[in-house]
Amino acid sequence: MQVIKPIFNALSHPQFLEGCLGANTQNSNESLNQFIWKVCPKVSGCGPLITQIAAHDAAMIFNDGQMSRLKVLRRLGIKPGANAVPAHFEADLSRIKQSEKRFKNNTIEARKAKRRERLRKANKKKEGDVYGLLG
């Protein structure tokens, strides 16, 4: 929480939010910013207040997942509907599974790359030994 607080404060600062109105902002591939721009697209022409709410919402989801929205609703005295809880739970579960799959694929690719590099070096050494015998 201490690490993200300065970032959150900077993203919700009125001067920053006013600069966002013209779509002159950071790359949407950055994790936290990506959540903000999903809620409040740069091209939608949202004002500073809507962008600030989007930044709050994005920080919540980024840190605690979709279920955190339901906590906010409850604190506001709003009872989430019967479908809201399973839908938010499934969204969090899906995000976790997708993240695990990406991690697994990255580790599989890394192992394959290491294996290819070892084979390449072994073949190069073997070829060097063969050419050394001929010369």
Write a structural description.
With 135 residues, the chain is mainly alpha-helical. It has 6 helices and no strands. The longest helix is centred in the C-terminal third of the chain and has 51 residues, at 84-134. The N and C termini lie far apart (66 Å). Keywords: Coiled coil. Residues 96-125 form a coiled coil.
Order of helices and strands: HHHHHH
Poorly predicted ranges: none
Shape: elongated
The helix fraction, in percent, is: over 70%
Q: How many helices?
A: 6
- Beta-strand portion reads under 5%
Radius of gyration: 24 Å
Keywords: Coiled coil
Coiled coil: 96-125
Concise synopsis of the structure shown:
The protein has 135 residues and is mainly α.
What is the topology?
Elements: H1 4-11, H2 14-20, H3 31-39, H4 48-64, H5 67-75, H6 84-134
Helix pairs in contact: 2-4, 3-4
Question: What labels would you give this structure?
Answer:
mainly alpha, coiled coil, 75% helix
